[in-house]
Design brief:
Elements (H helix, E strand, L loop, with lengths): L6 E6 L1 H18 L6 E6 L3 H9 L6 E8 L12 E4 L9 E9 L3 H11 L5 E9 L12 E5 L5 E2 L15 E4 L1 H5 L2
Parallel strand pairs: 2-3, 2-5, 5-6, 6-7
Antiparallel strand pairs: 1-9, 3-4, 8-9
Helix pairs in contact: 1-2
Bound molecules: 1-O-pyrophosphono-5-O-phosphono-alpha-D-ribofuranose.
């Protein structure tokens, strides 16, 4: 059995992801020149993007991690967001960049932005690798977007289905037969 056989179509190859993440890193490096941004990764989906993005930024940065959960094992957001793991450090007075793998309904970030703003950072921007604007139900937009994508169920490069496929080096569309049978 191979994880690759459940993929209908490769949406972004390893090379395309690498190139786009480098561009985002260059853009953030230019925008934050002279500052020391704190990158906050929203686990678990963003862990691979975070690792590559931070290495594409040539500034002093700090990193911290937060885990929230809203999806359970299904493909549709339940709308319930819960903090599973909070940040380790204070964000007061920091220039935050929230790093996400995907912005879908906007529910997760809508909630997180409220929580983070209350802690009084100097600024907050959102950097998402993937954006699915047609699915949005909350007024959230990202400041940095890797790719604007259609409404397909995608996995790989950190994104999962039922906690699997995160380790695919590319982003692919999952065969509907994989989740229709569950
Ligand atoms: C995914 C993703 C975002 C969120 C986006 O996380 O990482 O955090 O969903 O969807 P939304 O805009 O509709 O809120 P998920 O809950 O699947 O957890 P994971 O990061 O552990 O995969």
């Amino acid at each position: 059995m191979s994880i690759h056989q459940d993929i209908e179509q490769v949406l972004y190859t390893e090379e395309e992801l690498r190139r786009r993440v480098k561009e985002l890193g260059r853009q953030i490096t230019a925008d934050y020149a002279g500052r020391e941004p704190m990158l906050v990764s929203v686990l678990r989906g963003s862990y691979i993007f975070m690792a590559d993005l931070t290495r594409a930024i040539s500034l002093d940065v700090t990193v911290d991690f937060m885990a929230v959960s809203s999806y359970g094992a299904g493909t549709v957001s339940s709308g319930q967001v819960e903090i599973k793991k909070d940040l380790s450090d204070s964000i007061e007075g920091k220039d935050l960049i929230v790093v996400e793998d995907i912005l879908d309904s906007g529910n997760t970030l809508y909630y997180m932005m409220d929580v983070l703003r209350a802690r009084q950072p100097a600024s907050i921007r959102i950097c998402t690798l993937m954006d699915k604007p047609e699915r949005r139900t909350k007024p959230i937009t990202a400041d940095y977007v890797g790719f604007t994508i259609p409404d397909a169920f995608i996995v790989g490069y950190g994104l999962d289905y039922a906690e699997k496929y995160r380790n695919l080096p590319y982003v692919g569309v999952l065969k509907p037969s994989v989740y229709d049978h569950k």
